[in-house]
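Entry type: protein chain
Record version: 2
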Amino acid sequence: MVQDAAIDRAPTGQEIADWVRQRIRTGRFVPGQRLVEVDIIRQTGASRSKVREALKRLEGEGLVEIEEFRGASVRSSTLDEVRQIYRARMALEGMAAHDFTVNADAVMLGRLKALQDQLDACVRERAPDRFGRLNNEWHRLIVEGSGNKVIADHLQRLNVPIHRLLFESFYDEERLKTANADHQAMLALILAGDADGVERAMRQHIGDGFETLARIEDEFYR
C-alpha cells in the first residue's frame, strides 16, 4: 500500500491509482479538486510517468477528468444530474429484473442465490466495503441474466463513480440491513416467478438508493 511518504520501491501506476481512489473515497480529494502531479510525486515517491499512467487509468474509470492546459481534477457531478441518472436506472433496472425473472436459467438463479448468501454474511459480520462490492455484482448479474444487451449498454453509460464510491463506503449497520432486505425480497419474487412484482420492487429499491445517497452526500460534505 502506498503511504504518504516515499517508500523504498517506487510504486506502480496501479498502486498510485489505488492511492488516489482511496482519497476520493474518504473525501480527502473532493469533486472539482485539482490533482497536481508534483504533489502526488512528493507524497508517494512515484515517477512522473507512473502518476500520469494512474491518472489516465482513473480517467477511464470516470473518477478523474483531464483537460488540456489545466491537468487532472476529481470529476464532479451535481446531485440533480445524479437524480436524473437514478431515474433512468429505475426504469432500466426494473425492466432488467422483470426479464431476469422470465429468462434466467437454473445456473443464473444459483449464482444469484450464492451472491445473496454472501450479502447476508456481510450484514452479520458488519462488512460494509465487501457488501458494496457484492451489491454491485448482484445488480450486474440481474442485468446479465436479463439477456437484454440494450439495457446493459445503457446502464454502463449511466455510471456515476464518485457518488457510487460514497455509497459503497458509508453503509452503516441500518443501511446494510435495509438494502439487504430489499435484495432478499426481490430474490423471493424472482424465485416465485413474479416478474411484474420484482420490476416494481427494483424500481423502488433504486429510488430508495438515491434518497439514501442524497443523505450520505449531505452528511459527508456539510
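Comment: The beta strands are 34-35, 64-67, 71-74.
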